[in-house]
Amino acid sequence: MRKVVFVILAMFLCAGCSQKTNKDVVRSVYYWRTTFNIAPEEKEFLKEHNISRMYLRLFDVVVNSDNEVMPNATIKFLSPLPDSIDFVPVVFITNDCMTRDVSDLPQKLYSRILQICETHDIPAPKEIQIDCDWTMKTRLTYFNMLKELHSLAKADGRRLTTTIRLHQLTQPIPPVDGGTLMVYNTGDVSDIKEQKPIHDPAVVRKYAPRLRGYKLPLNSAYPIFSWDVLFRGGRYIGIMHGDDDLPTLKGDSIITRRPSLDDIMQAKDIVESNHDRISNEIIIYDLNKDNIKQLKHTDYEKIYSR
Predict the structure, then answer these.
(1) What gap in Å lies between CA 225 and CA 294, rounded to an integer?
(2) Which residues of 234-259 are buried (b: 16+ CB within 10 A; e: fewer)?
(3) 0.70 cut: is pTM over it?
(4) pLDDT digit string, tens, across residues 166-208
(5) How far is CA 108 from CA 96, 130, 147, 186, 239, in A?
(6) For a Cys staple, 131 with which of 92, 185, 274, 277, CB 3.0–4.6 Å?
(7) Cβ within 8 Å of residue 35, ≥6 positions away
(8) Mind giving me the DSSP string for the chain?
(9) Quick one: which of 226, 199, 240 has its CA closest to 291?
(10) Closest listed residue to residue 271, CA positions, set 176, 203, 205, 193
């Protein structure tokens, strides 16, 4: 009898440990629009799924028509920030910027990020994230830029992180405090034969072994967005962001590309089996009233579970 009681007690303790583990996952979202205006459905999503962190794109950095590296598409705030959310400012830098002289970019970036946060009452950030699709050719310039930016952030007690695309796992580790593995944009959207350009577990499986020896602390981000892709005679025309932003002709094809829950969960299992701490924080890309309709409440709970 004493043995039976012990077994039952052990089962309850294990169940409690499992629940605690899932609860300890940091649940996060990306916000990737040029206007900050939280819809009621988005507020409800944050509340229902206990989202505690938001990666907020503040602006892009691009090469303009005068061949200068400049900020672009700065976010405009039309609604107040949600309460009880930890905000991480994010800046997207186009890769071609890294082929120019960016020696003064770290200080300009850092000052502009803090100025936007102060102007719009965003709590002083504990972390700043940089997003760039750097390549072997631009790696040295990008890493030097990150080193300087990291020194500025560290002097103020802030972390600096960067996004890591799957193909970047084959490159040296960037000089930052951590990274977000972008488990999406796995294929060529312009190829009509590419069935899963947003999210393909087969591509994730190809790169996942690289995670085993990857020394940078990582979290992971999974897609919930879809693309309506316009093809004409089998030739890629573009991604349709509205009903009339790309003119259509008779005979055109509009193909919707959308990741499935099964594919997301399969990729998630692959990633987590190759990196035992990557599930400490899970991010969804991105918070949008149309995107969050793609899956059910229980589906999101599965994604956010460890």
Answers:
(1) 8
(2) eeebeebeeeeebeeeeeeeeeebeb
(3) yes
(4) 999 999 999 999 999 999 999 999 999 999 999 999 999 999 9
(5) 18, 13, 14, 32, 32
(6) 92
(7) 75, 76, 78
(8) -HHHHHHHHHHHHHHHHHHHHHHTSEEEEEE--SEE---HHHHHHHHHTT--EEEEEEEEEEE-TTS-EEEES--EE-SPPPTT-EEEEEEEE-GGGGGS--TTHHHHHHHHHHHHHHHTTPPPPSEEEEE----TTTHHHHHHHHHHHHHHHHHTT-EEEEEEEGGGGGSPPPSSSEEEEE----S-TT-TT-S-SS--HHHHHHHGGGGGG--S-EEEEEE---EEEEEETTEEEEEESSSSSS---TT-EEEEE---HHHHHHHHHHHHHH-TTGGGEEEEE---TTGGGSS-HHHHHHHH--
(9) 226
(10) 205
Which amino acid, residue 163?
T
